[in-house]
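Friendly challenge for the regulars: who can give me the structure tokens for this chain first? No prize, just bragging rights.
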Amino acid sequence: MRDRLKQAVGNVVSGEAFWDREKDMELLIEKIDGGANILLVAQRRIGKTSVLAELQERLGDRYICLFVDLQAARSGPEAIADLSVVIHKHKSLCEKIREVFGNIWEKLTESVETINAGEIGVTLRAGLTEGNWRGKGDQIFNILANCEKPVVLMFDELPIMVNFMLKDEDFKITPERRKQTDEFLSWLRKTTIEHRKNVRTIVSGSIGLEPILRQARLSATVNHLEAFELRAWDEDTAKGCIRALARGNDVTLEEGAAEEMVKMLGCCSPQHVTMLFSHIYGACKRRGDMSCSVEYVAEVFEKQMLGVRGHAELTHYEERLEMVLGKEMFTMALDMLTEAAVVGCLTQEAIKGFQKEYASDAGDTVEAQKEMLWVLQHDGYLEESAEGYKFVSGLLQKWWKNRHGGNFVSVLERGK
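First reply, four minutes later:
Bragging rights claimed.
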């Protein structure tokens, strides 16, 4: 393992900035070589997109790797348009993809002299409809299946796209939206299986795909995907990364400083480890002293990670949770998470207390809670212990307590 590590620019890292995950990468590549279609499963901020970027670097000589960001897509036609834009960037494929769109492409080239990716995307989205996207998609997959190298399709943020397809502005599933989502995912499943010899698919996202599909009873549409779990770093890996970053960026860590960083975070997601180091590095630079003690780690953690700068990063957890659960379930989930953050544990007694409090608002509260707790565990907010449910991440627990715990009263103390 490398002795020094420079800070990366941005959240997605690969190459020299990519730390550890060697066993994960070996297993993933082994599965891809074996023809598997993969669903990356992990809690948030574990580095799924970075793993995809690193895969592109390692597989680039043997595969055509296509990274397709579907975060902005809201329908089958838009997903096919986004895929087409990515394919068009590859010289060996651009002419073939133009043939698929025939008249649409001719109109685009007639109207502008220089074409950029944004213009291509807008034009293709306008030309794809509910009536023709499947046919165009079939043609595109046939092109990929006949490439000189096998293809790895990396669909990032497919879960975000599916969530928006399924749910209206109040995050409620409607029959029409469910029908359209089923049609798209069933088509993608059928096409992926049909071309499995030459096209592999990897799906990832910042929210879990399984909880969303479970809500809509559409889990069977992704049963061709093999789940691959990415876990947080263990403490030794995290400390190794921190020390390598310190050596690579001229920070002197005093005895126990790396251990204190790991202790403060509680769960060593790669992004939070590097985020905390970045705050410490910046604070050291500003004060003109590049040494870092245990006490300084605690100070920076409280002021920076739990302060305004950290708020923008951690609010993501709250926003994504509302997207998955919907407004009604989110209200109870927020209350239950705050109980866990302030009290330190969400006990069975507290869970029963919430059942009584929300009985009139949530219909079958017991079933709603079961589903909610499954989502909170699946997406890495809580984990079950002998006492009840506790936060996985010490960072997230402290931030949640600061944000929501000010005037909070435990559910077991309300009404007394």
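Strands lie at 38-41, 64-69, 151-156, 199-204, 226-229, 252-253, 291-292, 382-384, 389-391. The domain at 235-305 is CATH 1.10.8.60 (Helicase, Ruva Protein; domain 3). Your move, everyone else.
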